[in-house]
Amino acid sequence: MGSLLEDLAVPVERLRRYADPNEFSFETTEEVQPLEGTIGQPRAVNSLEFGLQIDTQGYNMFVCGISGSGRSSTVRTYVQEAAAAKPTPSDWCYVENFRDPDRPNAIELPAGKGAQFAREMSDLVEAAKREIPRAFESENYEQRRQQIARDIQAKREKVGERLNQEARIRGFAVEATPAGIVTVPLAYGQPLTREQYEHLTEEQKEELRRKSEELEEIIAQVLREGRILEKEQRDRLRELDREVALFVVGPMFREIEDQFKDFPEVIEYLRQVREDLPEHLEDFRQQESAQPVAGTLAALEDLRRQEHVDRYKVNVIVDNRDLKGAPVIIENNPTYYNLLGRVDYRARFGAMVTDFNQIKAGALHRANGGYLIVQARDVLTNPFAWEGLKRALRSREVRIENMGEQLSIVPTASLRPEPIPIDVRVIMIGPSEIYYLLYYLDEDFRKLFKVKVDFRPDMPRNKEHAQEYAAFIARLCRDGRILHFDRTAVAKVVEYGSRLLEDQDKLSTRFMDISNIVAESSFWASKAGSKVVKAEHVDEAIRQREYRSSLPEEYVQELISEGTVLIDTEGAAVGQLNGLSISQYGDYYFGRPSRITARTFLGSSGLINIERETRLGGRIYNKGFMVLSGFLAGRFAQDKPLALSASITFEQVYDEIEGDSASSAELYTLLSSLSGLPLRQGIAVTGSVNQHGQVQAIGGVTRKIEGFFAVCQAKGLTGEQGVIIPQANVKNLMLKEEVVEAVRQGKFHIWAVSHVDQGIEILTGVPAGERQPDGSYPEGTVNYLVDRTLNDYARRLREFGTPPSRLTPPMPSHEAPEGSGGGIKTAGSRMHHRDC
């Protein structure tokens, strides 16, 4: 027994991998070149570079990895470097479509030209507002206007004279009245009175009527000529106004045309403005009225005039004049409108109105010709954002449509801006779970995001990466203006990187956690009055960080110490053992010992899992438990049926249990109960077991050991206490130094086993016993005693005449509940209990 305990004991030097400060060639990180780029992510960097270099549609990127692994900062660094080498993309403007105002036109111009075009058009409008009124107030304009009036008046007089002459020839006079032109018959040059008309003969009256009708036709013709003259006057005045206006703004138009002669869309737009502006000169001319309009009517008139004038402005929605290279847009709030743009509305006297000047660009517009970085979770949780993004990437154009138009049952009048073609590379950042969900559930995703950039949570622990940790710390010290670290402090941070993963051969790439401990170490160094951060300051930061979050662990330890939760750390008991599990409260998790008990008796029910029966066992836990049936049947049921009933449970555990790391401990309690051999209560066990009895690796081994050590320390270390772990988990040990020191002094022990036969011998002090050629086991061994008990059960059950049933009854369907995969949170404690 003594030899086995020594052989299976884990050497002290393997309980924690220390970092040697002498491996670093510097005294403090002030001498270290700050880290540039990222470390430990060759696969992610290779994928990222590939995605940035390939120029094919659909090769957008999805960046996977855990939060805090440097995904976002790495992506920004590489994308900005790639963008700097690309040409600066074009500006985009929206202008009035004079043929169809509801469909504003989009114009593409070289970077900087958009703002110049807008400025030139704004100057033209302002100059027109200033110069056109002056031109119309000039003496020359008034003279020409009066000349037109005189010309038309002369023509009117000639027409009137001709009318009077025709009337006199027929013996009539014509008079202009408010009701129109009337004819009056004459007698001896005087208007004919009613008495005189009554004395006329019928022939004379008929003659007057005939002449009057002839004169009416002439009057109608004169009136037509008058209207023609009025139209001629209006046309001549309009042409005069047009001539004057174009004379004023013509040089400005020619100047703009000269600057943009290489852009046909601009030239066409200017031609349309040249045609439209003279038709709305009243918007530029000063309004004069004998009785000035005030109040609401005046405000309405001013708004109407301003809106008409604003039609000649240019709405630059993408302005790249200050950009060097391609744009890199990081959209932190990727709503539908923030991605694809929108058309705003403004209130005007109770009505909502809009025009092309209210068109606002989205992130896709601004990123056109470059890169757009978004968080996957944010895109997917914003209504319509994901569908809108996919639609833009599929069609390679951005079409601005307000969401209300898509949701409204009744079509409403709104702007339909001309879509803008895009060439943009989208980089989505999110956890791997979202990537796989989208890949399997959205067929468009695999067509549009063909590059997966996968950030791993760890990297090999070697001298090169340890040096890069130092460079990372140096960068934090410079950027965050915190104290520099000496080599001993850097070594402690390297050890902390391994402890985060519980792996001696790995370093964590969750640099958010590393940067947190660096900042906190600097704080404690400053508080201690040190000019540099030393190893003890890093230790203090780690201790304080754990202390701030360890209240749940402290509470559990108190319950154990005061005897509320029953955990024995001395003596021996049959069918009873301390198993180890992990409890998690938010960001803090710790090892928690739990008593496991087994009771065996004659029967045919097989193994009864109380946790499964009460629905407190998760799927993985239930699987681990059912493996025990296979082990027992394979080892002890080759020559007899198993006439066994047994119940196994975690005592005083009321949350869901998940994971199979308790299966070896459950097997030990079962073997103890069947053999009658007591188990050492000062030893806790963790490890998964397979049907052949091999002990398999589990998770959280470091925290589990520390949790049981804390219990033993509180109750008093005897030198007989310890933990049995799987041999495969030795490399995962990154124990606290107080645990390592206790093992060094022989006050605590850690054994690593690869088979349950080794574990049961440590726990009972009795050899497990190997099967002999005749199928029996050596007398006095554990397996011999178990086999003898099972033989006795089979004999006695046979004597009762009840045929034994299968070892384990089938699990009812309701006993396999849908689990969360990692435990449940109870309403009271919100505790996550994992039997990892």
Overview of this structure, please?
By secondary structure, the chain is of the alpha/beta class. It folds into 4 domains: 2-40 and 457-549, Orthogonal Bundle (Helicase, Ruva Protein, domain 3); 41-89 and 323-455, P-loop containing nucleotide triphosphate hydrolases (Rossmann fold), CATH 3.40.50; 130-295; 568-803, 2-Layer Sandwich (Ribosomal Protein S5, domain 2), CATH 3.30.230.10. Helix content is 47%, strand content 16%. It is built from 28 helices and 31 strands. Strands 21, 22, 23, 24, 26, 29, 30 and 31 form an 8-stranded mixed β-sheet that branches. It has a 5-stranded parallel β-sheet with strand order 8-13-16-1-17. The chain is elongated. The model is unreliable at 287-291 and 804-833 (pLDDT under 50).
Main sheet characteristics: 8 strands, mixed
Number of helices: 28
The secondary-structure class comes to alpha/beta
The overall strand count is: 31
| Head-to-tail CA distance between termini | 30 Å
> How much of the sequence is in beta strands?
15-25%
User: Segments where pLDDT lies below 50 for 5+ residues?
Assistant: 287-291, 804-833
- Radius of gyration over C-alpha positions, nearest whole angstrom: 47 Å
